[in-house]
Amino acid sequence: MACVGILAPGLVGGAVGAVCTRAVSSRLTPSTVRHLTLSSTMKSNRKTDHLERTASVVRREVVAAAKVCGAASESPLVKSLRLLIADKDFSFKAGQWIDFFIPGVSVVGGFSICSSPRLLEKERMIELAVKYANHPPALWIHNECALDAEVAVRVGGEFFFDPQPTDPPRNLVLIAGGVGINPLLSILKYSADLHREWANKRSGCEIGTIKLFYSAKNTSELLFKENILDLVNEFPEKIACSLHVTKQTTQISAELRPYITEGRITEEQIKDHISNETLFYICGPPPMTDFFSKQLENNHVPREHICFEKWW
Ligand SMILES: *[C@@H]1O[C@H](CO)[C@@H](O)[C@H](O)[C@H]1NC(C)=O
Ligand SMILES: *[C@@H]1O[C@H](CO)[C@@H](O)[C@H](O)[C@H]1NC(C)=O
């Protein structure tokens, strides 16, 4: 399952998993590497290239033209882009990433999509949130990318949530660190879309409950917190979140204070959600991802219920 967000040269990714909803037994193979953010820890150039790192990961064949039709600053370090993709052959599953081809830039980026597949179906749009990194695709997005710029994209990755109408509803626990929120936000938004459709028409997929644990350095790096809290407020019986900050140096604003915990996501919190029927999706820096996936395995969660992707 590949997940991830921002790419950069050192991104590595992760792991692979399985199509969780089908309960296919999958092995976590260390092949998917993705970049999310740039890392100061790149020690060698080997393996730093997104294409090389993800060479064995499943990709779609379609390379689609995409046009930048919106950009915004999500935090001091993260810029979001909206891309218009007219090509109807382009589609993706919640949690997947794209190869990002920029004219005139020889390095290919790899970024997780953070929007719902429904936004693409309805408006032909996808959204990305890319952290600043000293890597050509991230630099281009931060410094050069302008409205109407044209790029090309191709979908890939094995970290996704794609329930089928015949599947029983499954509870999800999403665990995000930093920009690892990107693919999990896509899964969260898509689940909310499915639930709206189910509530309105009793058709499509019935979803279980979703609990998001999301940790970032401080409240400005907790991306999309308003979107997340809006979904929690819209579906209080289905969606819950626990937002964490680990290095907050300023006072947390009064509006946010009730939703934020200072300190890491703990083992105990996750343990409270373990059941046979729950699927776990984890995307964050490698030590965090390793920690929680190991902890879940130690608590007898079947491997095929643990989907993760690493980045750095
Ligand atoms: C969070 O950290 C970033 C980077 O160090 C800093 O620019 C920003 O001001 C901090 N925000 C808050 C709310 O402390
Ligand atoms: C959950 O797993 C336990 C232990 O493997 C098993 O005894 C139990 O029947 C399972 N429950 C369901 C609902 O599958």
UniProtKB/TrEMBL annotation:
The keyword Oxidoreductase applies. Residues 50-164 form the FAD-binding FR-type domain. One of its GO terms (cellular component) is mitochondrion. Pfam families: NAD_binding_1. Keywords: NAD, Oxidoreductase, Signal. Transmembrane segments: none annotated. Residues 1-17 form the signal peptide. GO terms for molecular function: oxidoreductase activity. PANTHER family: OXIDOREDUCTASE NAD-BINDING DOMAIN-CONTAINING PROTEIN 1. This is Oxidoreductase NAD-binding domain-containing protein 1. It comes from Heterocephalus glaber.
